[in-house]
Design goal:
Shape of chain B: extended
Radius of gyration of chain B: 30 Å
CATH class of the largest domain in chain A: Alpha Beta
Radius of gyration of chain A: 21 Å
Structural class of chain A: alpha/beta
Number of domains of chain B: 2
CATH topology of the largest domain in chain A: D-Maltodextrin-Binding Protein, domain 2
CATH architecture of the largest domain in chain B: Orthogonal Bundle
Strand order of the largest sheet of chain B: 1-2-9
Largest sheet of chain B: 3 strands, antiparallel
Oligomer: heterodimer
CATH superfamily of the largest domain in chain B: MetI-like
Number of strands of chain B: 9
Strand order of the largest sheet of chain A: 10-9-11-8-12
Largest interface: A-B, 57 and 54 residues
Mean pLDDT of chain A: 89
Low-confidence stretches of chain A: 1-21
Helix content of chain A: 40-55%
Order of helices and strands of chain A: HHEEEHEHEHEEEEHEHEHEEEHHHHHH
Mean pLDDT of chain B: 88
CATH superfamily of the largest domain in chain A: Periplasmic binding protein-like II
Shape of chain A: globular
Distance between the termini of chain B: 57 Å
CATH architecture of the largest domain in chain A: 3-Layer(aba) Sandwich
Largest sheet of chain A: 5 strands, mixed
Number of helices of chain A: 14
Strand content of chain A: 15-25%
Structural class of chain B: mainly alpha
Low-confidence stretches of chain B: none
Number of domains of chain A: 2
């Protein structure tokens, strides 16, 4: 019995690793559906709406990718993953791309054998506490009980932060944002820590968001972005340039409103190259010329997606900050389409 | 006279391997074995190849890297700078702790419920039936999550203990605090303790340098530390019990010789207790009470609600199965035994304790082993409530941070296999001791 379990595990590893070696772009085209790993539910980034349709900033990346590759933004199979299961899901080939507010780190890129294709949200780790706790800085949290998602970089940052400041804490590991909310709202933990954007998203779902405050300290750099398996560079290029197409579209003023008009041809050669009326960029990627046009039409350019899902006019209410275009003093910068 | 010729000697032909029933079964077995080995070989080879293609050949050296994460419940010294290996050991100890607590509690509840279910009292018997059927027929994961939700949602948080007119207060003379972060109970402390001795100390490490001559060593010196206080207490208790047994033997002997049994209970009590109390006094024994300081209760022993929820749910769930095993064991003893014992004048309680249970044990123990194994393996559901067991550390965070899925899972499986085999080894030994000796 034990032996058969062992063999089963080997078989699983053997078979799944076999999937990983094949060309993902061809697989996705043959399947007619994109398997996208996403959060189990983080409003604004990835969560099913009342009709069961996945909505959010990370979800939009997958929709744009499906539109570019398959011509249908709805041809996406969303696979909810937790902080712990996401990498195994990607490494085993269960998903083609992981867009789940995942931090780009050295070990994940190099040792875990993934490729981060870019950054769709520049974030940092923050703390949320109830206003009634009377805490105004994370350094006052000595001895506090803190809810933390396991298997994340935030878990490591938290340990480093408290060690550096020589104060103690009691970690309460949770698997998903929902569990964290339950414990936090019941007072089983004093503070909840995760990416500041995630905290804003969680707070937006509370009955009385104004009773919670985000502490001023941002204790880490968290560049969040989609990632693919290492070694399949053709697929990596497709995902990378789809993301860049969204960013470049905002910079160049291509919006979902004027994209039809612009695709008749303009005097800006870069817009023409992105929209496929000039050059053969799509062909180089192994796609058709209109790939980027479809990606942008799927939900709009980077700025539109931001405002629609997590911007200041949504319940999440995040300012552009670091995520503004480089021309606006932010960090979002797409290399030239040439 | 006709000569009887020997039957013609049949020479071995290759076809006989299939058509001759003498060889056929052997042939089939050999072919199946070869097929199985080829399959295993192909799987191992395929896995190794694919891992090599991914650039992740099997390698266990990640266990010596810094873990980087904290573990809330740690039975030995551990911090975020310890290795993954040590984190795995913390997880293993947590697994063993909850498995041990669970097995003991489940056995006690199981035996009581199993016996009560056979009670002549209609109400008691029905109540026990309801308990058994509810717990046995709902998945244990749901019980674990439900217990945790119950603890979190119904109990007061430490904040409620604060202020002039607190919403909650400590119980048992302000010594126990029941909160939704767990239960804080008093801890034993020694003001004139002997200290600890480190096992395998690394004298060159900073932790093993005493701050001043004669001072106690740092907690993190050595692989782990053995408390001399505990050893002293165990030794004195053991000696006390041994002395008490000697006195009882002597009383038995006198009773056998003279027919009069001397009164010895005060002697036995004294021999067992006086040295222990003396030792505790000499060590400066006192209780460390939990008190609210800052965000949390400080001092005392913190039983986290993840441990309580897991322990509670696993025990009650497994106890419902054990109750059925116990009931089955008792019902298997023929009614004649009860009647014969009653005819001898034994009261019902003594019939159960002296006649029925000792015989029922022989039937109960083998299936009980499986229940212990189940409980231990079910404890891997701990992650549902954030209890940092082996699955949470080695096969959870370590796996995730290092990306070594196959290695971590293989190691985890080996450890669980080791635990399970040890439990069945011990229980089989016990079973051999109590089983009916047949000739």
């Amino acid at each position: 019995m034990k032996k058969s379990v062992f063999v089963g595990a080997l078989a699983l590893a053997g078979l799944s690793a076999g999937v990983a070696a094949a060309g993902t772009l061809d697989d996705v085209k043959a399947r007619g559906k994109l398997n996208c790993g996403t959060n189990t539910g983080l409003v604004g980034f990835a969560a099913p709406d009342a009709n069961g349709e996945w909505k959010g900033f990370d979800v939009a990346v997958c929709r744009a990718l499906a539109a570019a590759v398959l011509g249908d933004a709805m041809a996406v199979e969303f696979v909810p993953t937790t902080g712990k299961t996401r990498f195994t899901a990607l490494a085993s080939g269960e998903i083609d791309v992981l867009a789940r507010n995942t931090t780009w780190t050295f070990t994940r890129d190099v040792d875990l054998k993934f490729d981060f294709v870019g950054v769709n949200y520049y974030d940092g780790q923050g703390f949320m506490v109830p206003k009634s706790l009377g805490v105004s800085s994370a350094k006052e949290l000595d001895g506090a009980t803190i809810c933390i998602q396991t298997g994340t970089t935030t878990e490591l940052n938290l340990a480093d932060f408290f060690r550096k400041n020589n104060i103690s804490y009691e970690p309460v590991p949770v698997e998903t944002d929902n569990e964290a909310q339950q414990q936090y709202l019941a007072g089983a933990c004093d503070a909840y820590t995760t990416d500041a954007s995630g905290l804003a998203a969680v707070r937006a779902t509370f009955e009385n968001p104004q009773d919670q405050i985000l502490l001023p300290e941002i204790i880490s750099k968290e560049p969040l972005g989609p990632l693919v398996r290492h070694g399949d560079n053709e697929w990596g290029d497709v995902v990378r340039w789809t993301l860049f197409a969204l960013v470049a579209a905002e910079e160049l003023g291509i919006t979902s409103a004027n994209i039809e008009e612009l695709s008749n041809g303009t005097d800006n050669p870069e817009i023409n190259r992105i929209l496929g009326t000039e050059g053969s960029l799509g062909e180089m990627l192994g796609l058709d010329p209109l790939w980027a046009k479809r990606a942008i039409s799927a939900g709009g350019n980077y700025g539109e997606l931001f405002e629609k899902n997590i911007g200041v006019n949504t319940p999440i209410g995040l300012a552009r900050g670091l995520n503004a275009q480089w021309t606006e003093g932010g960090l979002q910068y797409a290399p030239p389409f040439r | 006279m006709t000569e009887l010729a020997d039957p013609p000697k049949e020479s071995f032909r290759l076809g006989m391997l299939i058509y001759d029933t003498r060889y056929r079964s052997l042939t089939i077995q050999v072919v199946a074995l070869i097929g199985f080995l080829v399959l295993v070989g192909w799987l191992i080879n395929n896995t190794a190849n694919n891992l090599a293609t991914l650039g992740k050949p099997i390698n266990f050296s990640f266990l010596n890297d810094t873990a980087g994460y904290d573990i809330n419940q740690r039975l030995l010294d551990y911090n975020s700078q310890s290795t993954h290996w040590r984190a795995a050991v913390m997880g293993l100890l947590n697994t063993l702790l909850v498995a041990f607590l669970g097995c003991v509690t489940a056995t006690i509840i199981g035996i009581v419920v199993g016996v009560l279910r056979l009670s002549n009292n209609w109400l008691v018997a029905r109540l026990m039936t309801i308990y058994v059927e509810t717990f046995r027929n709902v998945p244990v994961l749901l019980w674990i999550v439900f217990s945790m939700a119950l603890l979190i949602e119904t109990l007061p948080s430490p904040r409620d203990f604060r202020g002039d007119d607190p919403a909650a207060s400590m119980v048992l003379f302000d010594s126990v605090a029941i909160t939704n972060r767990g239960i804080y109970i008093p801890e034993p402390l020694f003001s004139r303790g002997f200290g600890d001795i480190p096992v395998f100390p690394d004298r060159s490490s900073e932790a093993c340098v005493a701050p001043e001559p004669g001072a106690l060593l740092n907690d993190s010196c050595g692989l782990f530390q053995i408390s001399l206080n505990l050893i002293a207490i165990l030794a004195v208790t053991g000696a006390g019990l041994w002395g008490s047994r000697r006195i009882r033997r002597r009383a038995d002997r006198i009773q056998a010789e003279t027919g009069d049994r001397p009164t010895t209970w005060y002697l036995r009590l004294g021999v067992a207790l006086v040295p222990l109390v003396g030792l505790l006094w000499a060590l400066g024994f006192h209780l460390g009470l939990p008190e609210l300081k800052g965000f949390n209760f400080v001092g005392g022993t913190h039983l986290r609600n993840s441990l309580i929820a897991l322990w509670f749910a696993l025990s009650l769930y497994t106890a419902s199965f054990i109750a059925e095993i116990v009931r089955g064991g008792i019902l298997a003893i023929s009614k004649g035994q009860t009647e014969a014992a009653a005819a001898l004048g034994l009261r019902p309680k003594r019939i159960m304790n002296l006649v029925i249970l000792p015989q029922a044990l022989r039937i109960i123990i083998p299936p009980l082993i499986s229940q212990y194994l189940n409980l231990t393996k079910n404890s891997s559901l701990a992650i549902a409530v954030g209890y940092m067991d082996l699955t949470g550390t080695l096969m959870g965070i370590t796996l995730n941070q290092s990306g070594r899925e196959l290695e971590a899972v293989l190691l985890g499986m080996l450890i669980y296999l080791g635990i399970s085999l040890s439990i069945s080894g011990v229980m089989n030994w016990y079973n051999n001791r109590v089983k009916l000796v047949e000739r």
